[in-house]
Structure formats: C-alpha cells, structure tokens
C-alpha cells in the first residue's frame, strides 16, 4: 500500500473514532456529529478513488 493511501486510511480511522465519540456524547443528530460523518464520507470516497 503506497504511503499516501496508508495516511488516508489512518485519517479515516481517526475521524471515524472522533465521529463515534461525538455521537455518543452529543447524539447522532448533533451538527458536529453530522459534520464528522460528512467529512468521513468524503475521505472514504477519496480512498475508494485511489483503489
């Protein structure tokens, strides 16, 4: 796995954890949780394009 893909995968995992924590603390409909979810979607899409 090239370095860029590895870094992107790490970012995805870190953001996923932040989103989960935010969802547990503030709820799934909270604007911050939704923002993390949207950013996570973007990163996953970017990762899929590289594969």
Automatic annotation (TrEMBL):
Any one biological process term the GO annotation gives: regulation of sporulation
Highest taxon of the lineage: Bacteria
InterPro entries: HLH_DNA-bd_sf, Spo0E-like, Spo0E-like_sf
GO MF, any single term: protein dimerization activity
Matching Pfam families: SpoOE-like (PF09388)
UniProt-recorded name of the protein: Aspartyl-phosphate phosphatase Spo0E family protein
Protein species of origin: Heyndrickxia sporothermodurans
